[in-house]
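Two proteins, back to back. First:
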Amino acid sequence: MIAVRDNRDKAAFGALFDHYAARLKGFVMRSGVSSGQAEEIVQDVMLTVWRKADQFDPNRAQVSAWVYQVTRNRMIDMIRKERRPIPEELTQEPDPEPDASQSLALEQEATKLREAIQRLKPDQREIIERVYLGELTHQEISNQTGLPLGTIKSRVRLGLERLRHELKGMRS
């Protein structure tokens, strides 16, 4: 951990990852989390360990205590996110007939969205389509394509940012 903190040593980080990944996954899964979600949490935790290695102080805690604390914090964040109340749907009587102007507007929006998706970089478009049209998890896409989970997440984030930018102002 000291080599990671002081020298950004990738080999040392690889050894840390190899040592802790399976242990952390088991720890997370014992709290009732699915295997796929546990893997995502472990990826996030290890990324946090790499990014915040400069905050590790061997005088305050052992490496294992520090890594497990990061993991516990990530799990708490996940639980809080899942327990957020979802706003109740407003009950509204369905319109007996769809309004022609609404149908036209919806069709135009769908066309603009399809065009914006087609303008994405091919690698981003493929991942966005797999996630939102194929309803696959990031882990499933990673397994199918052989791409690292972080790459999948980056392509989704960058693709959505580009779509958001291109479609800005479409709905007011």
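And the second protein:
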Amino acid sequence: MFRDIVTDVFFDLDHTLWDFEKNSALTFDKILQANRVGVDLNDFLRVYVPLNLEFWKLYRDGKIIKEDLRYQRLKQTFDSLGFTISDETIHVLSEQYIEHLCSFTHLFPNTVDILDYLKPKYKLHIITNGFQEIQEKKLKNANIHSYFDQIIDSEMAGVKKPNPIIYQLALQKANVTPEKSIMIGDSLEADIMGARAMGLHALHFNVHNDKKHDYCDMINELNEIKSYL
């Protein structure tokens, strides 16, 4: 569908290639046990996962800073569970979470297969709202760093997706026009609407069971990309 048009493929990282929820759960299992925090992991994740998405939206919209995101998502989770825990322990957990998250390397099914398929035909890049200090580690530890020519993160750009500035920076670094570019990601707002507003083509990797929309086609498995590229 885009084979005769696109030369450059931009991927989101978390929730698109790198299995954030699985790796995050394994990280919490490790650090909660290590710090003897006696909360049930499943109960914790049931509250934490949607809260984390809410706080990431606030962070993406510039309404909170990184430190607030990292502290409040834990604080409010424990408060919602009625679990008493000191601020000191929350800060320790917050630091250890970042420290250990990259040590888990689960990717979505067929990630390597689709990257192997695309690499000979297109230039591949990453555009991520994640923190610069850990996104490179995720890519390297998962052995997929070498697939990508340009890795653009929100701290480098000074803004977060869907802000057009981060897409402008990505296009500039990749030396490509929007018409020859496609963005593939999980977030309707940040990845799809942000890319389409800048004139990029898009594919929505629907891992959150979003409703159908008119911005672009949706895929449920990464291997479906082969039908488009």
